[in-house]
Amino acid sequence: MNIVFSSDKKEYNTIKKGTEILLAENDGFNQNIELFVKFQDRPEILINKRKNQIHIICREISHYYRALNYAIHHMEEDEFQYQEHVCFERNGLMLDCSRNAVFTVEKVKFLIKTLAKLGMNVLMLYTEDTYEVEGQPYFGAYRGKYTKDEIKELDAYASMFGVELVPCIQTLAHLHNALKWPGMDKIRDSADILQPEKEETYQFIEKLLRSVKESFSTSRVHLGMDEAVMLGLGNYLKENGYKKGSLIIREHCNRVVDICRKLELKPMIWSDMYITANSTGGYYDLPENTDCSKWEKPKKDLGLVYWDYYHDDTRTYEKMLDIHAQLSDNVIFAGGSWIWNGISPNYSKTYACTKAALSTCKKYNIKEVLCTAWMDNGAETPMDALLPGLVLFAHLDFHRDYDETILKQEFRNCTGGEFDDFMALDNFDSLFLNAKENKEAQNPSKYLLYQDPMLGIFDYHVKESGVNTKSYYQNIQKCMKECAKKAGKYQPLFSFYEKLAAVLADKADLGMCIKSAYDRSDRAALKDISQNVIPGIICNLTDMKSSREKIWMNDAKPFGYEILDIKIGGVITRLKSTGSRIDNYLNGNVLRLEELEEERLPYFTKGMDKRENLWNRIISGCDLNDTI
Question: Domain Glycoside hydrolase family 20 catalytic, which positions (predicted)?
Answer without folding.
Answer: 91-299
